[in-house]
Amino acid sequence: MAEQHAHAHAHHHGEKHTHISRGTYYRVFAALMVLMVLTVAAWWVEKNLLEIPGWLAVTIAMSIAIAKTVLIVLYFMHVKISSRMTQVYAAGAFVWLIILFVITMGDYVARGWPPQAGPLP
Amino acid sequence: MATITHEEAHAHTHGPELQHQFETPEQQKEAATLGMWAFLVTEIMLFGGIFMAYIAYRWAFPEAWEESAALLNTPLATVNTVVLLVSSLTVALAVNAAEEGRKRRLITMLVLTIVLGVTFLVIKGYEYSEKFAHCAGAKDPISWITGSDLHESHECLVPGRGFMFPDEHGSTSGGHGAAKTATQSGHQLFFLLYFSATGLHAIHMIIGLGVMTTILVMALRDRFSPTYFTPVEIGGLYWHLIDIIWVFLFPLFYLV
After folding, report:
1. Which of A100, B10, B18, B72 shows the smallest number of beta carbons within 10 Å?
2. With an 8 Å Cβ cutoff, is B243 touching chain A?
3. Which residues of chain A have a CB within 8 Å of the CB of B241?
4. pTM for the full model?
């Protein structure tokens, strides 16, 4: 039992903090709200003020969404203070997603996507 | 037991919730968290399929995407985004309260989360009913329910046989039949993906509300302590994932 206790003790006071303070949660939330306003503002500007290419608009919107996701995953979902194994799982989800998107779209584009309008509707 | 200090007692004593196959509460919590993440990865891949279809068809029909997105209710969706982000904060604070053993605060945060979740679904439900009301020829959901002010519908954005995308140019006849059908299918694909993605998301919200209600009942029955609050933690993980899905759905469908 003594060994187990020592192990648990070491784990508890390991290199990582096992606690995120409430202040951090409020700051992360404030950052999320700012990013939310930014993404809507970028969309409004692009619709009403200046014409920007579609790919740039998508890149801006997706960059903001990814930034929000990183904040939520690291702080709200505690991945920042989780074990290395959990971090690998969390990162793995996004790696698989990128494999899905890149290989599928690579195949589509290599075969000529979008297709030419054929004789049938 | 009497000789150990208070701090050690805090760190090492455990209640009946420690299952026999685990050596320490920390190990049990670690296993539960990892298991939840494994499940969340499959959830991300489930939504990933819809996002994949979205990418392929937006690539093919960029104009149809832009025209269709203009017909969605962006102000309501913006309100919903705020509602979900606030609910993510209340969940994070609920986990924090459970960690610190503050029962009253935990219950407050869980109730707030449930209220915000229901608010999201009510707003989403209104958005859906707007689209269905248009198919029935009503101006808005209220006149659809009361049956007043019904006329021939000029817009039906629910995919299916009745799908009708409003024509801005006014002319429907002429030799552009094939071209029109092609864009119509682009518009219909947008709304098919819109209803599939937001519908699947709404189903997850309903399940999330069930999870939160269960955790609330457990909290009311004093099932949690600073050494055991795993259900709050992993239930919170699920809720945050639903929030992340919406973080992507919002710009992809409403801000095209």
Report:
1. B10
2. yes
3. 77
4. 0.86
